[in-house]
Design a protein that fits this description.
The structure is a homodimer of 340-residue chains. The first copy, chain A, has 340 residues and is of the alpha/beta class. The first copy, chain A, is built from 14 helices and seven strands. The first copy, chain A, has two domains: 274 residues, Rossmann fold; 34 residues. A seven-stranded parallel β-sheet of chain A has the order 3-2-4-1-5-6-7, sandwiched between helices. The interface between A and B is large, with 97 and 99 residues.
């Protein structure tokens, strides 16, 4: 109870501490999540992703400032998912550089997340951290993912609105498609649009969008342990196909194009609320979260109950190619059954 | 039995079919893996990763040709992990472009892998496919991952030797660190080294390596369900710290620098065999594979046994913020226990 009050009252130190507990998945963190969860569900999550070198971080900073000053959003949070490096022992650059730009604005809270050690669990941690910020009363949460890999796509997919950032002169016009991120874009940004080749980038994106529209919208298939049951699936796809991602040209370093970007975000938010998509994305995320937690709990329970010697013996047999992993799993599960 | 003989005899059609089954994780695929597993463990896996625009695919092609012609390797396979796009319905470019370059050489087998739908399971699928190629007698398997995300790092980490490719003029000298891929590099390549800025890229990498050496080697921490037990851990870290990643400058489009790259690969292979690293990477991969299979089996078993209504009711309560996901998991697992 006390912690919720602290968070709501804007105690940034308390917020930081809770986030650290949640990031490290400590018992305190889990308890905090349980307590805070009823207060979640009102934040608007915006994912920003794109290849390295597109000026994403600068864009996120500029967007956060615009949301505060032009759009009068009371509280904006940034979660920067930054793979850490062994050379720095933590997120590189990150907070320090940002702090300088955004310092003095108590309506903005920034958190860098190290992706190290969270293999396979990045999306889960991001969800949990955005729930804390949501409960703490942040109206908009910007989730920035560095890179263009599969995990980044997954993380960005957690957001209500996904912004994919491109920039001219990165050598490869088809980066976004190659990385499979264009398909999750709700808004496309060509940043560094004063650089040569910007118009080409814009046109290439335009052409791809038109190609996509010809083929019809094809929502990415997710593998679920359990499906989000919604009979209105047909209606929703129709809803979704009505949205055509706008292409916004920006120069983030000079805050140019921010008005257009704000406008596009506002439009998409309206569209989400009008269709069933807002609700659907929320439900999907919660189902995914539950699924991940159950998978973790089941395997933890299993490995606690299973004698270490049996696991080690099995691993040895696998190393020696005496038994295939698939066969080993059958044996191990049967062993478990025989025991209980 | 028949299938193994076919694969060993070099039946490429049979190989393709088995790989498709394995990629789609069909019962046939699982059965094939079980049968083939005893014949695995001899292939040398080389991971090649880096940001988009570095000319990675061209480098992989050139390397495959060099391995065949200069190093006289009888059978070389390429697994290209390419995020698919909804616009093409499959891997973009990929096979067709490669086929043209490498056609006519029956000692080279190429397979593109769509990453779509395999969320969270990419590393697993790559392992399985490399096991098939290993059993089919491929001496060297090149695993190319596009992008610089967390999954890509994970996949590249499956290899015995990891090559990280950079290129000048991609806007950001610290791409590799930002993406956290430098830490997994055994060999660094500056491709397109005839482009302006190549020398800068090389020097930046050199400086980072020296920084890293000063700080000591810091092997990435992996979260395991069960640990690979090896008392010789201290010795191994010492072994590993002896290896300094060489920086090779190449122009893959003109096959330049390939001799140096082959030499570096040969050296690293020697080093791996001399130290315990070869064995350790093999063991780690198999432990990870077993872990993934167990997690899948446990959650599949659970969701089969659990009444659908209970899951749906729980999801509804979560959507309505009546119950937190962490609490829901406790209820669900307790429910399961009460039932059996």
């Amino acid at each position: 109870m006390d912690i919720i009050t602290s968070l709501r009252e804007g105690n940034r130190l308390a917020l930081s501490k809770v986030l650290t507990h949640v990031e490290n998945n400590t018992p305190t963190g889990q308890q905090a999540l349980e307590m805070l969860f009823p207060s979640t569900g009102s934040a608007y999550l915006i994912g920003i992703t794109g290849a390295p070198g597109t000026g994403k971080s600068t864009l996120v900073n500029s967007l956060a400032l615009s949301l505060r000053r032009q759009a009068n959003i009371p509280k904006v949070a940034i979660i920067a998912v930054d793979p850490s490096s062994p050379y720095t022992g933590g997120a590189l650059l990150g907070d320090r550089v940002r702090m300088r730009d955004l310092s003095g604005d108590t309506g903005i809270f920034i958190r860098s997340m190290a992706s190290r050690g969270a293999l396979g669990g990045l999306a889960h941690t991001t969800t949990a951290m955005s729930q804390v910020l949501d409960a703490a009363g942040y109206d908009i949460i910007l989730i920035e993912t560095v890179g263009a890999g599969q995990s980044e796509v997954e993380i960005a997919g957690l957001a209500h609105t996904v912004i994919v950032v491109e920039a001219p002169g990165l050598g490869d016009e088809i980066q976004a498609i190659k990385a499979g991120i264009l398909e999750i874009a709700d808004i496309l940004v060509v940043n560094k649009s004063d650089k040569p080749g910007a118009e080409n980038s814009r046109r290439a994106l335009q052409a791809m969008l038109e190609m996509a529209r010809g083929g019809g919208y094809n929502p990415p298939a997710r593998k679920h342990l359990f499906q989000v049951t919604e009979p209105a699936a047909v209606v929703e796809v129709t809803d979704e196909s009505e949205w055509t991602p706008p292409i916004i040209c920006t120069i983030a370093t000079e805050n140019q194009g921010m008005d257009e970007l704000l406008e596009a975000i506002k439009n998409h938010q309206k569209y989400l609320k009008k269709s069933t998509l807002w609700e659907r994305r929320d439900k999907e995320n919660l189902a995914l979260e539950l699924e991940g937690l159950i998978r973790d709990a089941l395997s933890e329970k299993w490995s606690t109950e299973m004698p270490k010697e049996v696991i080690e013996r099995t691993l040895d047999e696998i190393y020696q190619r005496k038994i295939a992993p698939h066969t080993a799993v059958k044996h191990l599960l049967a062993y478990n059954k025989a025991r209980t």
